[in-house]
Every structure is written in C-alpha cells, then in structure tokens.
Amino acid sequence: MSDKNMVMTSGNLAFAEAMRQINPDVVAAYPITPSTEIPMRFAEFVANGRVTTEYIPVESEHSAITACVGASAAGARVMTASSANGVALMHEVFPIAASFRAPIVFGLVNRSLGAPVNIHCDHSDSMPERDSGWIQIYCEDAQEVYDTVLMSVRLAEDARVLTPVFICQDGFITSHCLEPLEFLPDEFVRSFVGEREPLYPLLDTDNPVSYGSFTMSEYYFEIKRSQMEGMINALPVYNEISKELAKKTGRLYEPVENYRADDAEYVAVIMSSATGVVKDVVDELRIEGIKVGVIRVRFFRPFPKEDLAALCRGKKGIAVLDRSASIGGTAPLAAEVKSALYDLPEHIPLQEYIFGLGGRDFYAEDAKKIFYRLINGEYSAKADFIGLREGKKDNGNA
C-alpha cells in the first residue's frame, strides 16, 4: 500500500478526478443534485488551467446533452454528468446519441424522480433509459466509480462498440460519502486511455458526412441492427479492457460479481451500493452454517444473462432486489433475471423485492429477513416490499 496514491474522497470527486486525468476535449453540463459536484469540481480544473477542455456552461440539461452529441459527432472526446429530472429532460436526445454512435461517457448519479420532490437515491432516473441504446454500468463504491470511468472511455470509443456509456452511482450514498481509494498516476491514465480516433467525424471536411438525416424504412431497420451489434460486442470488449487495467491495479470488475454464490443454496441479486449490506449479512449467516450468497449485477445494459444464469443454476431460491419500481409491471432487474433464467432446465423459485425508494435506508435486518423468507419458502407472485412502514403496504393513498 505504501507506493499507492491513497486518498479520502467521494464518488463524485473521484469521477471528476478521472475526468481531469483524461482531459476530454469537451464537457457540457448543467448542475443538478446530487451530481453537481462533478461539473463543479471539473470547472475548477478548467479555471485553474489543469485541463485544456472546452467547458460549455449551458442553460439546461437538454442543451447539455445536445452540445455533447454535436461535439462527439464532430470527433471530440466528450463527458458530462447529471441526475434525476435532469436526466429526464435529456431523454429525447439519448436515443439520438446512441444512434449517432457517439461515445459519450456520462456520470449518472442516481436520484429519485418526483413527484413528490425527493433528492435521494433510487434508480428511477436511469431505468427509464434502459432501452435508449446506452450501456449502463452500476458501481458499488467510489473506487469502482473511478476505475470504471477510465475503462468506459476505452469501451465507448472502441470501434467494435461505439456506444455511449452511463456510469451509475448511488446519490449521496456513493457520490458524497468519503472513503479511501487509489488514484492512478496521470501518466498511466493518459497511456491507458489513449487518444480518440473518431470514425466519420463531421470536421473531416475532406470526407464529408451527414448526421441526423431523415431516414425512411428502407434504411432505419439496418441502422438499429448496427446499434445492436455494438451493444452485443460491449461485454467481450469490456472484459479485455478490465483485465488490462487489473494488471496494474489488482482490481478486476466482472460484469456480474459473484460473492460466495458458487455453493450457495439461496442468493440475492442486487445492484450498486446496497450490495455491501447484503455481503455483510452473507458473511454472518455463513458463520451460522447457512449457505447464502450475493450476485451483484454490474452491467444492466447489455445484460449479462448467460453469466447470471450460470451462477443461478441449482439454487433453491433467489431474491431480486430492485431500487426502482415498474408501476404496473415487473421491476426492471427482476424482469431481466426472470428472462435470463427462462431457458434453465430447472425452475428456481424467485421473489421480487422493491426497496430503498426515495433514499429509504436498507439495513442488515432487512437483508436477513429476505434470506429467511427464501429459506422458509415464502414466495409471492407479486413484488414484495422491504423496509416499508407498517400499515402502508396496501394503502394506495399513502
């Protein structure tokens, strides 16, 4: 540890520091809680001459993502950040960025969508974008946020992928809480990330191209199929990049993390910061001789269904924990897990849980309760709620 640059910092500031080291060509941003610190800190780097980035302070989040798309199409390396209602305001432009194959790296700091107004964490801002054509990566802690930024620039810009990336972290929990992490040397980051080599940039006037043209059905279908190919390629390309970074750091981030799940009889499937609580409970229950484990989904898009299905084979029960709700349907993570398990030869009982909406705390006792319910065979065809106040479960006017 003595030769490592260990600092106490937060997920937001780790993201901004990675941006400084990468020194993107363009950043266009409009601040919104809890992602404000990312553009704020980066603006300080710009003002102090620590980067050569063209920083564009715009009048809205919609303008921010529009400027990012234009700059990326021109051939620039582009980054930005936002949350919640800011992400919702950008919604119109996200599919355009993906269709343009604009490799934008986006810090999405998860926060609930109103109403009522709430500034705390759940995944209701990122989940509506799951079919917009962007890669979605969910991080557990600040170190993972930092490392993922470095890898995501490479991933997004790889000619086999050429797809924008959301790097998601839980608002306030990961974004603002301080923890020790390692910053890599500037020289290594510059070498690891390299320079962008754009394909078909607008500013290559010797080879003129058109972006945003009107397209009839004769070509539209093929364009969408091309996007799908880039998404299909994302996981194998990511695995190459993550192994390369792990040689330097010793930290390997799999698309699906396996925590004591190999021999587990019951597993919880979860994403982001709440994973740590469940891991602690798994360790405690293992001491008591109860075989439980955790499967953390890191990539939500593309969804690593084969890896997840392989880890779930032979289990006696699965709990899927969603920090967002699909009102009138199956919660997003649960829907993907059920789809991944569909072709398995055996039927594995699965219970869908919704937790933590609007920043509601998730405790070790909640995780224990989930595992004991699995063991006791308590399953329902409907989603269950964990951490809900007494008397509110069935009150539609609560």
Query: How are the strands of the biggest sheet laid out side by side?
Result: 3-2-4-5-7-6-12
- The amount of beta strand, in percent, is 15-25%
What is the radius of gyration computed over CA atoms, rounded to a whole number of angstroms?
Answer: 21 Å
The description of the largest β-sheet is:
7 strands, mixed
Mean pLDDT, rounded to whole units? 96
Helical amount: 25-40%
Shape: globular
With helices defined by DSSP (H or I, 4 residues minimum), what is the helix count?
12
Query: Low-confidence runs (pLDDT<50, min 5 residues)?
Result: 394-398
N- to C-terminal separation? 51 Å
Q: What structural class should be given to the helix and strand makeup?
A: alpha/beta
Features:
single chain, 398 residues, alpha/beta, seven-stranded mixed β-sheet, six-stranded mixed β-sheet, 12 helices, 15 strands
List the helices and strands and how they pair.
Layout: E1 5-9, H1 11-22, E2 26-29, H2 37-47, E3 54-57, H3 61-74, E4 78-82, H4 84-89, H5 94-99, E5 105-110, E6 135-138, H6 142-157, E7 165-170, E8 179-183, H7 186-193, H8 217-249, E9 256-259, E10 266-270, H9 275-287, E11 292-297, E12 299-301, H10 305-312, E13 317-322, H11 332-341, E14 350-355, H12 364-375, E15 384-386
Parallel strand pairs: 2-3, 2-4, 4-5, 5-7, 6-7, 10-11, 10-13, 13-14, 14-15
Antiparallel strand pairs: 1-8, 6-12, 9-11
